[in-house]
């Protein structure tokens, strides 16, 4: 491996505590990093260098962050239950809604100007940012653990291995029609387009949709990734599969790590998985092949994201929470940016 | 043959397989290894060109992409270095080769052992003895033993019920052994003492070997002997069942046994006459004893007394080993005992019981004592029950053990997996959030948009 293909954010610019999320900007190579140290960090990534532009303090650990309509707007959520909007140029923050438990996941749909937040209070909040609308709340059967969007669908992975797929257009309609009450939040009821049970036997850790809107990948705490398709026809459903990964055999014992992060490459349609073992692997979901696997990172991989142009892969390394430990495991916090070669994340001949 | 070999290659085959220095993977042949190395370890990430060696890749990166190679991709952590120039199997440092061969060997033996355990077969030729199968065998035998014993007992019980009084069961075995035995018996005076000397060994010999041979070494036992004879009449009932014995006898330990019944029944006149004469305990016993006693003086004659007794064929069956002795003695005895209210009988009983017990249970002195105190009348039933129960237990236990082992195997499989994080409902983040240092204190920091925040807060909480 050539060392120049990969670099770290300088140590003095790193978050001081575990990282919860990394997100690239839609139109540039700006990178947002949310951390348990109660800050959101904004970096500018160029070839070989990552520079800290700004950091935004929160009153509680931040669990997720995402960009909004442009590269100057961001949203965050965290342990203080709030969903906030951050103006990245001025640093101004305002609270959009508040869950009744820590809010852990955010996604933003640019086409609908809709921000969706998920929480351990088993609700989703929808914030329509085009108008002056009151946020809407949708009850879920279980705690939400992961969210992912395609241009048309929203996938929510929850506790108890539940998984709902919503059609964004339906949701949007419901939300726009629901703005009648005066309370701080509207409650809507929406039937998911599909209810599924995870094809993995253990708790779902992450879910990520294919950029071509055909399906999604989900991962569990038990070193496994499943790939499924939206199309409910039997043919498509028969194509779904799952595979083991992020495991190590130590003294004859198979040590199985959680697969914490999944991210699809926006151009090639392959996806990366990051595990508690500190390994990132890139997979071709169609050819069912592993394309490559990177060297072990210094700590558990907490989050991953590809830049919009697919040239960079951001890997957030931070100590992971392990069974039987009171505190976080060992490992240093770092953000590693991998500069991908032309074909580095490209699938085999299939494409 | 070829296929078999492929399934379980021998050690040399394994050692001969080419393997990759960087990842310790082994391959069917050198060509595949080389293409593996080119694809996995010596491939340029930038342009996908496959070089032949790490050095070649370094030069390529340097010249074409102006980059430096620091480590070999996809290599084990300790093998990432560029110092060693590897091509196929060339260039691997000797100590690494040795270490590899050692692990291959260990793996090989471990495989053999696992296979032996899994299949229950003895390890294939050349392999290390597997410990797994060894304990298994004795267990099986024990179960079989128990069943046999159960059958014997049932037979005896049946005999009891049918009690017509006929030839002695005891005799049969003796007869059988005789032909072969006689030479051995000849030694017996000399040979026995050692055998008899251990308290246990001696008794069995007595029973099975009424012949004088025994008496001479151990006169002390003679009383038991006579008792034995007494008991014999009942034993004769045992005859009908004896056919049962024969199959049972097919034990490995008692090769001599099987033939005996046959001879007995068929050619041997003893059977019918014996019984008749015996029931009247007095007369038969007398002669017998006499002969018997006479035995010692006769010096050996084990054969001869028997001949007398049987009226022909010697019946000193005394199989070569103690086991068979016990069996023969023990089997016939119990049925007879209860019926004969001879004072001595109880004594014999307990003894025989012990023997039975001994035979049935894994030989252990303490176990044998258990039954001593039982009233003779209760014997049949109680012993029968006991044994059948034991047999059942044994069956069950063997079943459960097999089940257990299955389960264990499964469990082991599962146990071999260690989940770093395993919780069905609480995500790692939630657990982290519960850590004291992340505890959220609302007043900790005021946020810029305080008003909006408060409004939202109260709103939701209220709702």
UniProtKB/TrEMBL annotation, chain A:
<dbReference type="InterPro" id="IPR036322">
    <property type="entry name" value="WD40_repeat_dom_sf"/>
</dbReference>
<dbReference type="InterPro" id="IPR015943">
    <property type="entry name" value="WD40/YVTN_repeat-like_dom_sf"/>
</dbReference>
<keyword id="KW-0853">WD repeat</keyword>
<dbReference type="Pfam" id="PF00400">
    <property type="entry name" value="WD40"/>
</dbReference>
<keyword id="KW-0677">Repeat</keyword>
<feature type="repeat" description="WD">
    <location>
        <begin position="259"/>
        <end position="293"/>
    </location>
</feature>
<dbReference type="InterPro" id="IPR001680">
    <property type="entry name" value="WD40_rpt"/>
</dbReference>
<protein>
    <submittedName>
        <fullName>Nuclear pore complex subunit</fullName>
    </submittedName>
</protein>
Automatic annotation (TrEMBL), chain B:
<feature type="compositionally biased region" description="Polar residues">
    <location>
        <begin position="346"/>
        <end position="357"/>
    </location>
</feature>
<feature type="region of interest" description="Disordered">
    <location>
        <begin position="116"/>
        <end position="137"/>
    </location>
</feature>
<keyword id="KW-0863">Zinc-finger</keyword>
<dbReference type="InterPro" id="IPR003656">
    <property type="entry name" value="Znf_BED"/>
</dbReference>
<feature type="compositionally biased region" description="Low complexity">
    <location>
        <begin position="358"/>
        <end position="369"/>
    </location>
</feature>
<dbReference type="GO" id="GO:0005634">
    <property type="term" value="C:nucleus"/>
</dbReference>
<keyword id="KW-0539">Nucleus</keyword>
<feature type="compositionally biased region" description="Low complexity">
    <location>
        <begin position="287"/>
        <end position="297"/>
    </location>
</feature>
<dbReference type="InterPro" id="IPR013087">
    <property type="entry name" value="Znf_C2H2_type"/>
</dbReference>
<feature type="region of interest" description="Disordered">
    <location>
        <begin position="392"/>
        <end position="412"/>
    </location>
</feature>
<feature type="region of interest" description="Disordered">
    <location>
        <begin position="159"/>
        <end position="377"/>
    </location>
</feature>
<feature type="compositionally biased region" description="Low complexity">
    <location>
        <begin position="210"/>
        <end position="237"/>
    </location>
</feature>
<feature type="compositionally biased region" description="Pro residues">
    <location>
        <begin position="270"/>
        <end position="286"/>
    </location>
</feature>
<keyword id="KW-0479">Metal-binding</keyword>
<feature type="compositionally biased region" description="Polar residues">
    <location>
        <begin position="318"/>
        <end position="329"/>
    </location>
</feature>
<keyword id="KW-0862">Zinc</keyword>
<dbReference type="InterPro" id="IPR036236">
    <property type="entry name" value="Znf_C2H2_sf"/>
</dbReference>
<dbReference type="GO" id="GO:0008270">
    <property type="term" value="F:zinc ion binding"/>
</dbReference>
<feature type="domain" description="C2H2-type">
    <location>
        <begin position="42"/>
        <end position="65"/>
    </location>
</feature>
<protein>
    <recommendedName>
        <fullName>C2H2-type domain-containing protein</fullName>
    </recommendedName>
</protein>
<feature type="domain" description="BED-type">
    <location>
        <begin position="13"/>
        <end position="72"/>
    </location>
</feature>
<dbReference type="GO" id="GO:0003677">
    <property type="term" value="F:DNA binding"/>
</dbReference>
């Amino acid at each position: 491996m050539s060392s120049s293909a990969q670099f770290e954010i300088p140590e003095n610019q790193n978050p001081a505590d575990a990282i919860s999320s990394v997100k690239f900007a839609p139109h540039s190579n700006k990178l947002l990093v949310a951390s348990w140290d109660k800050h959101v960090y904004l970096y500018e990534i160029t070839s070989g260098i990552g520079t800290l532009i700004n950091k935004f303090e929160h009153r509680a650990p931040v669990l997720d962050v995402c960009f909004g309509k442009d590269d100057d707007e961001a949203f965050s959520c965290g342990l203080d239950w709030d969903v906030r909007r951050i103006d990245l140029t001025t640093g101004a923050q305002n609270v959009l809604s508040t869950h009744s438990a820590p809010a852990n996941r955010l996604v933003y749909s640019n086409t609908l100007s809709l921000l969706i937040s998920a929480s351990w209070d088993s609700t989703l909040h929808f914030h329509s940012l085009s108008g002056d609308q009151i946020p809407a709340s949708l009850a879920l059967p279980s705690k939400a653990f992961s969210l992912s969007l395609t241009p048309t669908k929203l996938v929510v992975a929850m506790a108890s291995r539940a998984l709902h797929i919503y059609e964004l257009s339906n949701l949007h309609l419901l939300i726009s029609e629901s703005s009648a009450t005066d309370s701080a939040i509207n409650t809507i009821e929406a039937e998911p387009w599909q209810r599924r049970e995870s094809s993995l036997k253990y708790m779902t850790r992450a879910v990520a949709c294919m950029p071509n809107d055909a399906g999604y990948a989900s991962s569990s705490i038990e070193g496994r990734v499943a790939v499924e398709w939206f199309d409910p026809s039997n043919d498509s459903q028969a194509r779904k599969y799952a595979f083991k990964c992020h495991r190590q055999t130590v003294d004859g014992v198979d040590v199985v790590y959680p697969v914490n992060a999944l991210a699809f490459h926006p151009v090639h349609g392959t996806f990366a998985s990051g595990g508690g073992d500190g390994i990132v692997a890139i997979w071709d979901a169609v050819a069912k092949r592993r394309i490559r696997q990177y060297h072990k990172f210094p700590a558990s991989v907490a989050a991953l994201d590809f830049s919009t142009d697919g040239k960079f892969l951001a890997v957030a390394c931070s100590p992971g929470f392990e069974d039987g430990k009171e505190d976080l495991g060992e490992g240093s916090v770092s953000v590693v940016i991998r500069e991908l070669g032309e074909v580095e994340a490209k699938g085999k001949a299939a494409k | 043959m070829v296929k078999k070999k492929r399934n379980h290659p021998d050690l040399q085959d394994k050692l001969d397989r080419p393997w990759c220095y960087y990842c310790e993977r082994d391959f069917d042949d050198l060509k595949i290894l080389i293409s593996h190395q080119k694809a996995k370890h010596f491939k340029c990430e930038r342009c996908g060109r496959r070089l032949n060696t790490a050095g070649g890749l370094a030069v390529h990166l340097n010249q074409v992409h102006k980059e430096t190679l620091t480590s070999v991709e996809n290599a084990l952590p300790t093998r990432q270095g560029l110092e060693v120039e590897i091509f196929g199997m060339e260039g691997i440092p000797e100590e690494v080769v040795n270490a590899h061969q050692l692990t291959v060997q260990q793996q090989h033996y471990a495989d053999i052992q696992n296979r032996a355990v899994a299949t229950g077969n003895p390890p294939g030729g050349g392999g290390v003895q597997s410990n797994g199968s060894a304990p298994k065998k004795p267990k099986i035998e024990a179960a079989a033993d128990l069943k046999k014993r159960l059958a014997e007992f049932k037979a005896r019980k049946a005999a009891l019920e049918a009690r017509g009084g006929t030839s002695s069961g005891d005799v049969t075995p003796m007869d059988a052994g005789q032909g072969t035995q006689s030479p051995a018996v000849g030694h017996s005076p000399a040979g026995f003492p050692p055998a008899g000397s251990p308290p246990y060994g001696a008794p069995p010999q007595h029973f099975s070997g009424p012949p004088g041979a025994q008496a001479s070494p151990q006169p002390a036992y003679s009383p038991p002997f006579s008792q034995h004879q007494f008991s014999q009449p009942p034993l004769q009932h045992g005859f009908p069942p004896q056919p049962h014995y024969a199959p049972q006898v097919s034990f490995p330990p008692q090769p001599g046994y099987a033939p005996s019944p046959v001879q007995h029944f068929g050619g041997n006149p003893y059977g019918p006459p014996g019984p008749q004469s015996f029931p009247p305990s007095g007369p038969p016993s007398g002669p017998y004893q006499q002969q018997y006693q006479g035995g010692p003086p006769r010096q050996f004659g084990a054969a001869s007394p028997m001949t007398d007794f049987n009226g022909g064929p010697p019946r000193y069956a005394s199989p070569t080993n103690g086991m068979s002795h016990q069996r023969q003695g023990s089997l016939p005895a119990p049925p007879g005992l209860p019926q004969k209210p001879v004072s001595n009988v109880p004594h014999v009983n307990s003894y025989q019981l012990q023997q039975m017990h001994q035979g049935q249970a894994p030989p252990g002195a303490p176990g044998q004592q258990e039954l001593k105190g039982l009233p003779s009348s209760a014997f049949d039933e109680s012993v029968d029950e006991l044994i059948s129960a034991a047999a059942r237990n044994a069956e069950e236990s063997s079943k459960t053990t097999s089940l257990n082992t299955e389960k264990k195997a499964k469990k082991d499989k599962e146990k071999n997996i260690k989940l770093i994080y395993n919780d069905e409902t609480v995500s790692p983040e939630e657990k982290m959030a519960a850590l004291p240092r992340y505890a959220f204190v609302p007043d900790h920091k005021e946020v810029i948009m305080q008003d909006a925040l408060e409004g939202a807060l109260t709103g939701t909480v209220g709702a």
